[in-house]
Write a structure and sequence with these properties.
26 helices; Helicase-assoc_dom; disordered C terminus; Sec63 N-terminal domain-like fold; hydrolase; Rossmann fold; 3 domains; 6-stranded parallel beta sheet; 6-stranded mixed beta sheet; ATP-binding; alpha/beta
Length: 757
């Protein structure tokens, strides 16, 4: 992310020295998230010694530091797509770098598909115009990309592009799986694991991955409360806590490990002997890998995969359906016969069924309906979801034959640790910071700054920290294996947020965060069986789970007539494309021949979905009211709409005043809250009434953007909207003084069952 753009710069792209090779156009790097675009631009500017905001700039939604001298620009994917609507050939650029392509957002897939046609077209025009139009270089980057979707896709790239594999980890990362997979109370499991790491392990930052903002806020509060009574200072320069514990084991454990390693070396091939010796080699703190195993891990000496899956089965009521021998073979090194494989497959199927049932139950309490996304199609990590708030739960220690010999020594060590874990008796303190997309930029930047002296950094984040950004000095990663994804409701074509298992590729990305600045450890709060049999290898492309109206309309506006033939890396299902075409025709965005109409061009210019755009244009043309623009702006910030009347939530107990809540309409509530914020846009006001300042600020910026665009497109759209199919009906909705003061009207698109009251 930071080096490839510099290689291009040094090769002459982006500055006058590249004129001889036709490389003088800007270099643009796309990122899936705003925080990554901003921070990578700042980092590259520092490394190049160029001015940040001068030669190296960034451009994200509502914010940029562009200058006339900009030669290297970091942007979000949606920003570049918007630029293509006015300059399809991207003539200002000599190189485009698509970073983190494995995330497979809709914007990324559409962007790659368009660029796959622009690159050869620019080359052909370069040859025809004898240099007037320059060639374009395209680089697609990812650490865990499913390469076949790109390189083997002849529709996308008729000639397979060259593939360069680069080692992405500079330091080894040891992975520790959990013996017991917590299906519901994974936040509690993360709380326990952070405490163990902070108490027992050597210096280094901790990065915890959770699914939602609500979970992050809860865990931050619990850890802060626990460590508020800390009295002894954490010293990362002279750390003796764990070496003290290790010294108590030295006489008993190290001798046994050496003997065990010697026996293994005598019976294993040479390469396995080398691997075995690496298990007993010591690091800079005088510790072997086994010393980093914590309570509840598969490699903690208390039982391996079978015990973990037995616990998983017992807690989920599926004990009768699990064959523990087969499950041991799933995660272990021994071979299994056909019967064991059948048992394993049956067990994996039951785990998958349970996971689906759990998601259904959890999502019913915390689904959040999405309207529009960042830069029209993809927010970086929007939203919040409810989760069960449970207390601490101690995990039992089941001794087996492997650990029986060490019981006395380990017992003494655990007794010593328990004595030290009294109130006011922790050895050090924890610097706890949240990280998610709704945080303001200043708060997000805190994770990149050194923690106060005498504290250990602990960042609790969503998948926003999974790729692109590098948090300094992270040595330990705690991975719950959960992520909040948008899923498509096929019957209504609406989207809901749902907590799901991450993919294996995403799990590897998370583990890699621990190996950026030194050797690290990743603690996965799920078993090897869940990793191997429940998690998919790669994340499904977003285009398979999102409405396609905005994508199809943009293509039609760019005069791409045959959307079904578009070179997507992974084409969407044909019926979804057809459904989008039908909806757009009913909205009047497409004519009977499915060509873009003047109304469709107006809708394409608005940064909201075509349905919201149509409501806005029709309401403004008929009534001249601002209310629909405000509501559409608020709904388009996907984190805002929740399943309850607590429309905006901070994750705490603060609720909006009753005067802001409308008993019969969430939309009127949105409007009232927005108007209250417009009267007092301070952070203090937002905290007092329980709304998110950053969200409201973005909604206000989106409203201003919509108003400016509507002023340009309403005259053009008014002439063509009256005869379009599926015209909106309107009727007054004022039923009393309060509603009349809101100035709202009932607007309904009867074709899509989308109603605003």
């Amino acid at each position: 992310t930071t080096q490839i753009p510099q290689f291009l710069w040094e090769a002459g792209y982006g500055h006058p020295e590249g004129e001889a090779a036709y490389r003088e156009g800007m270099i643009v790097v796309t990122e899936p998230r705003r925080v990554a675009a901003v921070n990578m631009a700042k980092r590259v500017a520092e490394e190049l010694g160029e001015g940040f905001g001068d030669t190296v700039c960034y451009h994200v939604r509502y914010q940029n530091n562009l200058s006339e001298n900009c030669k290297l620009k970091f942007v979000t994917e949606g920003i570049l797509l918007k630029e293509m609507q006015s300059d399809f050939m991207l003539r200002r650029y000599s190189a485009v770098v698509v970073d983190e392509a494995h995330e497979r957002s809709v914007s990324c897939d559409v962007l790659v598909g368009l660029l796959s046609r622009i690159v050869p077209l620019r080359q052909a025009l370069f040859e025809e115009t004898r240099g007037e139009i320059k060639p374009l270089k395209l680089i697609i980057m990812s650490a865990t990309l499913r390469v076949a979707d790109f390189r083997d896709n002849l529709r996308l790239f008729p000639h397979a592009p060259p593939l360069i594999e680069v080692a992405v980890r500079r330091f080894p990362v040891t992975t520790h799986f959990a013996r017991k997979t917590e299906v519901h109370r994974y936040v509690d499991a993360a709380y326990d694991k952070v405490r163990q790491i902070h108490k027992k392990l050597p210096p280094g930052g901790i990065l915890v991955f959770l699914a939602t903002q609500r979970e992050i806020d809860m865990l931050c509060r619990r850890l802060a409360e626990h460590y508020r009574k800390t009295r002894i200072v954490y010293d990362d320069e002279r750390y003796t806590k764990h070496s003290l514990i290790a010294s108590r084991r030295e006489g008993a454990e190290n001798a046994k490990k050496a003997a065990k390693a010697k026996k293994k070396a005598e019976r294993m091939p040479d390469e396995e002997s080398v691997a075995s010796s690496s298990e007993t080699s010591e690091d800079e703190f005088g510790l072997a890998k086994g010393d980093y195993a914590l309570d509840g891990d598969e490699d903690d000496g208390q039982g391996a995969n079978a015990e973990g899956d037995a616990g998983f089965a017992a807690t989920t009521g599926l004990a009768d359906d699990f064959d523990y021998g087969a499950m041991r073979n799933i995660g272990g090194d021994t071979d299994s016969d056909d019967d064991d494989a059948k048992h394993a497959a049956r067990a994996a199927q039951r785990v998958a069924e349970l996971s689906a049932a759990t998601n259904k139950a959890d999502s019913s309490a915390g689904n959040h309906w999405a309207a529009d996304d960042e830069d029209s199609w993809g927010d970086d990590d929007a939203g919040d979801a409810d989760n069960a708030n449970g207390g601490d739960e101690d995990e039992g220690d089941d001794d087996d034959a492997e650990s029986a010999d060490n019981a006395d020594d380990d017992g003494a060590v655990r007794d010593a640790v328990a004595e030290e874990d009294e109130p006011d008796g922790e050895f050090d303190t924890l610097h706890i910071l949240p990280l998610y997309s709704l945080l303001d930029q200043q708060s997000q930047q805190r994770v990149f700054q050194p923690p106060p002296k005498g504290t250990r950094l602990c960042v609790i984040a969503t998948n926003i920290a999974e790729t692109s950004i590098t948090i300094p000095n992270v040595r330990y990663v705690v991975d719950t294996g959960r992520v909040k994804n948008k899923v498509l409701q096929r019957d209504t074509q609406a989207q809901a947020f749902k907590i799901e298992w991450i993919s294996q590729a995403a799990a590897e990305q998370r583990a890699g965060r621990a190996g950026r600045v030194g050797p690290g450890h990743c603690y996965r709060l799920y078993s090897t069986a869940v990793f191997a049999n429940v998690m998919h290898k790669h994340t499904d492309p977003e285009i398979a789970r999102t409405p396609l109206e905005s994508v199809v309309l943009m293509m039609k506006h760019l005069r791409i007539d045959h959307v079904g033939n578009f070179p997507f890396p992974a084409p969407p299902e044909p019926h979804l494309v057809k459904q989008a075409l039908v909806h757009l025709r009913r909205l009047g965005a497409l004519d009977d021949a499915y060509r873009c109409t003047p109304l469709g061009a107006s809708l394409a210019a608005l940064p909201v979905t075509p349905r919201y755009g149509r409501i806005i244009l029709d309401a403004v043309r008929r009534f001249g009211k601002r209310a629909p623009q405000v509501v559409a702006a608020v709904l388009s910030i996907t984190a805002v709409a929740t399943a309850t009347m607590d429309v905006f939530v901070l994750g705490g107990d603060v609720k909006p005043p009753r005067a802001l809540l409308h008993p019969g309409s969430d939309f009127v509530t949105f409007l009232r809250v927005f108007n209250a914020f417009a009267a007092d846009p301070s952070i203090e006001f937002c905290r007092r009434v329980g709304i998110v300042h950053k969200t409201m600020g973005e909604a206000a910026a989106l409203r201003r953007q919509i108003e400016a665009l509507v002023a340009d497109v309403v005259p053009e759209s008014a002439s063509g909207s009256a005869s379009s199919a599926g015209a909106l009906t309107a009727s007054a909705a004022a039923k009393g003084g309060a509603d009349s003061a809101d100035g709202t009207a009932l607007l309904a698109d009867f074709d899509s069952n989308e109603v605003m009251a």
